[in-house]
Design a protein that fits this description.
Organism: Halorhodospira halochloris
Order of helices and strands: HHHHHHH
Number of domains: 1
InterPro entries: DUF3775
Radius of gyration: 13 Å
Largest sheet: none
Protein name: DUF3775 domain-containing protein
Number of helices: 7
Helix content: 55-70%
């Protein structure tokens, strides 16, 4: 069903949760789209964080279509699309795709990204439970 491996999405979920839970991290509400450089600017002060590097590395290992699917899953989990609109969500995410690290930064800088990704997986019957 997905081009991206569910285990990879779960890794990104765990790392986003780990990053956003740090006391030093403040994530402001920002633009909804990936095309804006806001996310990269917001994360620039966290570039030395191991978790940021791990998430960026995970995205860099994915093909552009797989990166877009992660974003589409986040959008489904956030309620921008529902599971029946998957083809449209994925198409829109592919159209808005930007090269790493911007896609990774967009996901990491989205408040509640881990929850949205988890809910997105859940909409298709997947979860990150071992």
């Amino acid at each position: 069903m997905f081009e991206v491996n569910v285990d990879t999405v779960c890794f990104i979920i765990n790392k986003c949760r780990e990053f956003q839970a740090k006391d030093s991290v403040e994530i402001d509400a920002g633009p909804d789209g990936m095309g804006d450089d806001w996310a990269s600017r917001m994360l620039s002060s966290y570039e030395d964080e191991v978790t940021v590097q791990e998430v960026r590395g995970a995205f860099e290992s994915l093909e552009p279509a797989q990166q877009a699917e992660v974003v589409a899953l986040m959008w489904v989990g956030r309620g921008d699309f529902d599971a029946s609109e998957w083809v449209e969500a994925r198409s829109e995410a592919k159209s808005a795709w930007t090269p790493p690290p911007r896609t990774a930064d967009y996901v990491m800088s989205t408040p509640l990204a881990a929850d949205y990704l988890e809910d997105g997986l859940g909409a298709f019957g997947f979860d990150c439970e071992d």
